[in-house]
Specification:
Length: 281
Amino acid sequence: MKNIRFILAAALLLSFALLFAEAWKFDSDIMVNLTQSQFSDNWAGSELSNITWTASMNNTAQKQLAEWLKNKNTLKLAFGQTHLQKEDLLGETYWEKPQKSTDQIAFESLMQFTLKTFVDPYLSLRADSQFLDEASTKTLVVNPILFTESAGIMKTIVDGEKTKLNARIGGAVRENWNRRVDGIPVDGGIEGIVEFKQIFGLLNASYNSRLSAYKALFKSDAVAGVDNWKAPDLKWENLLSLNLWKMLSLNLNLDFIYEKEQSPDIQWKEILGLGFSYSLF
């Protein structure tokens, strides 16, 4: 298992090193959303003040390394907190410790072998984590980390200036490295991903969507009689961003997740905010 972690670390370092090469095509957006409500001490209602903020960054760096090889690196960072005002038994108000509302780290390096055939082979390395793990009294930074290595075939369906659509399917192996537990459980199966991007020039808006599905075929720490891990995992991420004026933007994040090991029902998260966005490239 140490060898696996060494290979993954080396691949990540190589991917980051490639980012500093020349002739890369970069795409980077920074968004900050803030909502706030405040009430006077003599407010007749029962509402209390609150502040919610979210900061996110979406980065893409891609390059045709050779006529037969294209590399695409994506990095998504997001973090947000909610500050709530509470009232004690004496009627005095106080601010609670801030709670996480958003926390995501997602990096992927994709190697596409552009052989000018109907479909292209690919290799992919992905790492998913969070900034703060508050599952216990001791907070851990960047934990757990889910590594995914996959290989298969992909098709670039649309590659226009304003519209991009690609799909891929292949085999995948995942390692869940959690510093709170001993050992690194491994599972493997079939993975499919569809990515779509559309830029609306007249509306000064953009829409990004990513649909991923994973069906595990084996699991190293499977428990006899418990087969929730055999159910397919689905995740659909959507981001609609509308530029209102200069750096002022309206952003809508809508995510759907189905993972039976976590919940038998579909989970969803919606964040609508008015904030600031800036494109670095």
